[in-house]
């Protein structure tokens, strides 16, 4: 799926930036992006990769998941088709073949995401609230609270809020669903030791 198919996140970025009373230049500087590029994103003329979106989220004190979840208005009933927009993931080494697709749109507290392909093992996460990881296809390795777990197709891992964790696919065509209910998500860019 091309970046042209990714969700328009610009209005949510603009709302968040204005609520924080930050200028385009401040956010662009913190995110390491150009002001024209950030302006194009906010105005819907460009769509960021997952890496750029995460840098913008970090600059705004939020997460890429939060920005994606507010890209569209909530609906009382919503069907997200398999062909819906996915965002290319970016790892420590740059663009990868991994994709992330929101499974619930417009809701800030319910996060449901589908990850397909590569996922950055060097990125650790710590969410305030609980989360589950479900391996729909393939297999994955998860490190949570200092322990390693191998998950096969159909396995689920529950991770209590506040625990540092990270995961990666270990088989081709792995698809992982991540579901959490949270009012705030934060991530750290610590490299694996």
Write the layout of secondary structure elements.
Blueprint: H1 10-19, H2 24-31, H3 35-42, H4 50-59, H5 64-69, E1 87-91, E2 94-102, E3 110-116, E4 124-127, E5 131-137, E6 139-144, E7 147-152, E8 156-159, E9 165-169, E10 175-181, E11 185-188
Antiparallel strand pairs: 1-2, 2-3, 3-10, 4-11, 5-8, 5-10, 6-7, 6-9
Helix pairs in contact: 2-3, 2-4
Which descriptors apply to this entry?
disordered C terminus, 5 helices, Jelly Rolls, 3-stranded antiparallel sheet, 33% strand, 193 residues, 6-stranded antiparallel sheet, alpha+beta, disordered N terminus, 434 Repressor (Amino-terminal Domain), 2 domains
Determine and state the CATH class of the largest domain: Mainly Beta
- Which sequence of SSEs, written as H and E, runs from N to C? HHHHHEEEEEEEEEEE
Shape type: globular
> Terminal Cα separation, in Å?
33 Å
CATH superfamily name of the largest domain?
A: Jelly Rolls
Strand content: 25-35%
Computed Rg:
16 Å
Number of helices: 5
Q: Into how many domains do the coordinates divide?
A: 2
Briefly note the structural class of the backbone: alpha+beta
* Overall pLDDT score: 79
Strand adjacency order, main sheet = 1-2-3-10-5-8
Helix content: 10-25%
Query: How many strands, what sense, and barrel or not for the largest sheet?
Result: 6 strands, antiparallel
Give the beta-strand count.
11
> Low-confidence stretches at least 5 residues in length (pLDDT < 50)?
1-5, 184-193
CATH topology of the largest domain: Jelly Rolls
Query: What is the correct CATH architecture of the largest domain?
Result: Sandwich
């Amino acid at each position: 799926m091309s970046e042209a198919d990714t969700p328009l996140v610009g209005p949510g970025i603009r709302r968040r930036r204005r609520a924080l009373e930050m200028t385009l230049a401040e956010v662009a500087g913190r995110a390491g992006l150009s002001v024209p590029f950030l302006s194009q994103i906010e105005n819907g003329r460009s769509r960021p990769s997952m890496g750029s979106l995460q840098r913008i989220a970090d600059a705004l004190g939020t997460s890429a998941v939060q920005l994606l979840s507010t890209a569209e208005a909530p609906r009382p009933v919503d069907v997200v088709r398999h062909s819906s927009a996915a965002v290319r993931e970016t790892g420590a080494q740059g663009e990868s073949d991994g994709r992330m697709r929101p499974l619930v749109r417009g809701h800030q507290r319910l996060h449901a995401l589908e990850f397909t392909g590569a996922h950055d093992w060097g990125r650790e996460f710590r969410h305030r609230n609980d989360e589950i990881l479900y391996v729909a296809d393939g297999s994955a390795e998860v490190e949570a609270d200092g322990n390693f777990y191998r998950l096969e197709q159909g396995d689920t891992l529950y991770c209590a809020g506040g625990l540092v964790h990270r995961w990666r696919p270990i088989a081709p065509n792995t698809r992982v669903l991540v579901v959490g209910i949270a009012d705030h998500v934060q991530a750290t860019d610590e490299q694996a030791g």
